[in-house]
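User: Here's a structure from my thesis project, written as structure tokens. My advisor, Dr. K., wants to see whether a designed sequence matches the one we expressed. Can you design one independently, without my sequence as a hint?
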């Protein structure tokens, strides 16, 4: 079953049998999803290492009439569009920053049946211009957990040991004492732009002596050296795989 077919099936459940009536005479959500997929294709950017970055934030402007008709379903529809777009991006093996976000807004001046899709890379604080040729988004932005209860910049070395994860393209993610949640959602301390990774995928607990990796019930599981794990103490050189991302555990000092 294709992404579009799964989307239509979920829509039928969303409106509880009123599917044909609700969308009769207004823009059809499948048309919107098709347009979102075209926008992702049109705004591909090649990152260092050969990865393909596409927009993760999509703003849908509907005509005033269409917006008023679909208003009761807007929030649920946006969620279904986001899920289907994430599935599509995953099938293409493309990369996004964090979660796929869809916002449905009222577009003044649009005729009934017309809509506009605006796509952009959203990193949580600013929008990146994905249309620029050769655009390289650089390392993903992520907050580092501060044991004092807040968030701050990535931690430095501590206790004479440099404990870190290193990605295949050379990016380094230092670890500090305490817990670090890995995922692609806003609640993760270490965010990775990989649609195969759950919002809260795994947790690393560092007590100053060892690092224990625990899977948090992720959809695709967590692998260490090719073996699926639920919880394991990491050894230097271990290869941790989450989604399509592979990280090497390193300890110096």
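Assistant: Designed independently from the structure alone:
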């Amino acid at each position: 079953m294709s992404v579009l077919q799964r989307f239509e099936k979920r829509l039928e459940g969303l409106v509880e049998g009123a599917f044909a009536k609700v969308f009769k005479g207004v823009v059809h959500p499948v048309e919107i999803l098709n347009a979102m997929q075209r926008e992702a294709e049109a705004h591909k950017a090649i990152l260092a290492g050969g990865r393909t970055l596409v927009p993760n934030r999509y703003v849908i402007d509907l005509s005033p009439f269409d917006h008023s008709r679909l208003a009761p379903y807007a929030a649920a529809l946006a969620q279904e569009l986001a899920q289907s777009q994430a599935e599509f991006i995953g099938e293409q093996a493309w990369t996004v920053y964090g979660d796929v976000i869809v916002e449905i807004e009222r577009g003044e001046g649009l005729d009934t049946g017309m809509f506009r899709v605006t796509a952009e890379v959203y990193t949580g604080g600013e929008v990146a211009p994905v249309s620029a040729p050769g655009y390289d988004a650089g390392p993903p932005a992520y907050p580092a957990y501060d044991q004092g209860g807040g968030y701050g910049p990535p931690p430095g070395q501590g206790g004479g040991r440099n404990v870190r994860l290193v990605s295949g393209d050379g990016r380094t993610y230092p670890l500090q004492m305490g817990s670090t949640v890995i995922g692609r959602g806003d609640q993760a301390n270490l965010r990775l732009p990989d649609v195969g990774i759950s919002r809260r995928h795994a947790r690393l607990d560092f007590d100053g002596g060892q690092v224990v990796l625990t899977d948090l019930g992720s959809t695709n599981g967590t692998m260490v050296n090719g073996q699926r794990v639920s919880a394991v103490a990491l050894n230097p050189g271990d290869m941790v795989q989450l989604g399509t991302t592979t990280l090497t555990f390193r300890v110096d000092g």
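When you compare it with your expressed construct, this may help: The two ends are 52 Å apart (CA to CA).
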